[in-house]
């Protein structure tokens, strides 16, 4: 791995430049997209532990995603995008997360933000965003953290300005475009997508957390960043457009976001199990003092039992996750006015179920893999801890206990949740 002197410390894109030619042709089917994602995961897996330890800004890794074409998976075909449904976008994120949770997360967030205008904007706004990001192969980050209601929007005539502070801006510091979310004095919120590289956006580069260390999720200060009113997603003539934001369809945004999370949780856990398997079958030794001694670790009852249990839970989690991904594809493909509040609510409850199951399963698998690998597997150079650290970090995004409570009301009272920033 090569490190250069960009500010801050950043990985060098030259490391991956050979993949631009290798992946010059965009995948054309779901199978090909998944195969490309697996290739990317294989590349990232080789030095994921080392890159995690260095904690350098993943400039090179975003460039690798660009070379792969994965940033275009949901992009409109008329501009050179993949034209795939949401289900494929989720599956591609999951595959990349198997090799490196941080980069899987970056891809998942980009895939969501690249579609934000499709969900909460007008058709004209959506088409414009696709044209820009697909034709330029742009990576999109976000400064969207609802708990920090710190970006203030001011109407300055033909434009609006954003000013304030965001604690978390995943992927934004290494992005080409950034999604800004803020509030007018009236309390109404507006999303807009603007170029990242401009004087009014200053990143602190202060992301140094337990897990997901290569996501550049640190804070940013935004000062008088301008966007035309025409870029205010779902707004028209300085007012909320009821034909766009006055229906159930745009409230799909929050469950769509939550399903991104669950897919990279699952991918990280699946990658952890595969990595542990490689270690157990080659390195783990049988226990010689149990009274039922075996010649190989793979003959140990408790090891076989644990792997079987982990596999079963991951298989069930994957089936549930795929079910939600399929429904996401169906709902987002419907005419906007035909999506009902009840449909949206039931989708949100399915996604909440996925969040609960994948959180529990991913934490269990990534923490439990040490039981089937042995004491020597705790060495830093082995790097098994990164899987648990990545899952543990993001599963704190919003308390899963509230998802359980929400599901309880759905089961007992047949209530679907009111759309909020987290449901």
UniProtKB/TrEMBL annotation:
Single GO biological process annotation from the record: L-leucine catabolic process
Entries under InterPro entries matching the protein: Acyl-CoA_DH_C, Acyl-CoA_Oxase/DH_mid-dom_sf, AcylCo_DH-like_C, AcylCoA_DH/ox_N, AcylCoA_DH/ox_N_sf, AcylCoA_DH/oxidase_NM_dom_sf
Keywords: Flavoprotein, Oxidoreductase
Domain Acyl-CoA dehydrogenase C-terminal: 259-397
Keyword Ligase carried by entry: no
GO terms, molecular function: 3-methylbutanoyl-CoA dehydrogenase activity; flavin adenine dinucleotide binding
Entry-linked Pfam families: Acyl-CoA_dh_2, Acyl-CoA_dh_N
Name used for this protein in its record: Thermophilic desulfurizing enzyme family protein
Species for this entry: Cutaneotrichosporon cavernicola
């Amino acid at each position: 791995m090569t490190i250069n002197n960009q500010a801050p410390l950043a990985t060098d894109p030259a490391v991956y430049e050979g993949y631009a030619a290798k992946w010059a042709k965009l995948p054309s089917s779901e199978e090909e997209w998944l195969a490309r994602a697996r290739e990317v995961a294989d590349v990232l897996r080789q030095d994921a532990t080392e890159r995690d330890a260095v904690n350098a800004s993943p400039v090179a890794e975003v460039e690798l995603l660009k070379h792969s074409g994965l940033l275009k998976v949901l992009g409109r075909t008329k501009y050179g995008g993949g034209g795939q449904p949401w289900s494929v976008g989720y599956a591609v994120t999951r595959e990349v997360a198997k090799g490196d949770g941080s980069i899987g997360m970056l891809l998942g967030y980009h895939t969501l933000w690249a579609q934000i205008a499709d969900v909460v904007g007008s058709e004209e706004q959506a088409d414009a965003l696709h044209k820009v990001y697909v034709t330029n192969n742009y990576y999109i980050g976000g400064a969207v953290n609802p708990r920090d209601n710190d970006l203030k929007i001011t109407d300055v005539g033909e434009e609006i300005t954003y000013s304030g502070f965001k604690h978390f801006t995943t992927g934004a510091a290494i992005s080409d475009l950034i999604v800004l979310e803020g509030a007018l004095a009236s309390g109404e919120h507006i999303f807009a997508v603007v170029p990242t590289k401009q004087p009014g956006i200053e990143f602190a580069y202060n992301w140094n957390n337990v897990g997901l260390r290569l996501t550049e999720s640190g804070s940013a200060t935004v000062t008088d960043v301008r966007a035309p009113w025409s870029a205010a997603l779902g707004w028209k003539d300085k007012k909320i457009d009821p034909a766009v934001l006055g229906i159930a369809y745009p409230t799909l945004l929050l469950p769509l976001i939550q399903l991104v999370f669950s897919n990279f949780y699952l991918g990280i856990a699946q990658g952890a199990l595969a990595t542990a398997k490689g270690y157990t079958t080659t390195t783990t030794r049988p226990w010689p003092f149990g009274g039922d001694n075996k010649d190989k670790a793979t003959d140990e009852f408790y090891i076989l039992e644990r792997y079987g249990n982990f596999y079963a839970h991951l298989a069930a989690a994957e089936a549930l996750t795929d079910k939600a991904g399929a429904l996401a594809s169906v709902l987002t493909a419907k005419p906007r006015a035909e999506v009902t509040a009840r449909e949206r609510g039931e989708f949100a409850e399915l996604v909440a179920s996925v969040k609960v199951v994948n959180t529990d399963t991913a934490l269990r698998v990534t923490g439990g893999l040490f039981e089937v690998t042995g004491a020597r597997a705790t060495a830093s150079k082995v790097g098994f801890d990164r899987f648990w650290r990545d899952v543990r970090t993001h599963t704190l995004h919003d308390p899963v206990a509230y998802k359980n409570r929400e599901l309880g009301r759905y089961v007992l009272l047949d209530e679907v949740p009111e759309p909020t920033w987290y449901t």
